[in-house]
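=== RUN LOG ===
request id: a7f3
mode: sequence -> structure
chains: 1
length: 254
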Amino acid sequence: MGPVSAPMSAAQTGVLSGTGHPPGASGPAVAAAALAWITLVLWLDADGSLWLQRGLGLATWGVLLVVLGSEQPLVRLQTAVVVVIATAVEYTFSPLLEIYVYRFDNVPAYVSPGHGLVYVAALALGRSSAVRAHLRLCSGVVLAVGGVWAVYGVTLAERSDVLGLFWFCCLAGFLRWGPSGPLYVGAFLVVSYLEIVGTALGTWQWQPRDPTGLVTIGNPPSGAAGGYGWFDLYALLLAPPLLARWQRLTAGRV
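=== RESULT ===
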């Protein structure tokens, strides 16, 4: 083993012990603002040029930095981890595998910071007093609504959605055993809303099947929010040791 690291803050310890994310200034108002911005971006990009798309990307980075300005360093680093992993997933799923495609057959410049905003919005909704006080009820509603949507996708929908059912099972598993119950509730609301808006505007479209031809996909898939459970898990695992290492490095420069 290496040298003993510096003691972690109470916020970091809370995350590692499974008690959730550290408290922060963001709440429902921040979530609403983030959703409003992303909705505006999707609407503008629906018929916009590639250069407009790039400009929206730059502006979205600015919005994300402003939103993160009131957060603790640990949450900022968690968000950075989500952005990096989500970006890798985007380039794998879209240009490489073409499981879904954007209008210009690219990954729009606003998508990477947009994932950061989605994560912060889900976290902010999870911090709300309503979700915290009624987490069991909120989780039950998510499971009921998401379950009906997922079952409909593989039984009655014109376009079968096996991928959505799989992702819903992931979401249900995270709600049952994951460390960030309130965030998963927020993620279901935020991600489902944005998937419905984005596909309705034609900003992106999911292919009917995966590259193997075996897995059917809805447009959008019903359980897409399940993916954010994995993003959050990586954020919780990677951000605290990265922050501890950064603190050791910066402490040595004082």
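=== NOTES ===
The first helix runs from residue 10 to 16.
The chain has one domain: 24-240.
=== END ===
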